[in-house]
Specification:
Length: 97
Amino acid sequence: MDSRPPASELETAVLRLNARAWGMAFGLLGGLALCIATLVLVLKGGPDVGQHLGLLANFFPGYRVTGLGAVLGFGYGFVTGYIVGWLISTVYGRVTR
């Protein structure tokens, strides 16, 4: 027999993660990270700017290491981050039930 007291409402609320909130948080982090990384490389300049970051164009159509690419990269980073955050929250919620 389990001698632990029943879970309080606070414990239940802490265990239950809000999938939309996690998605928004991860989305903003991912979008800002990609946008800032792109802008730093654009400002740095050089003959072959953003060679490695430019490979993201294989996964994100239209993305380039340019000023406009930073805006597009924010969108792609946000969507990708949102999906990852939502999945983490959903899986965690189901595992802790």
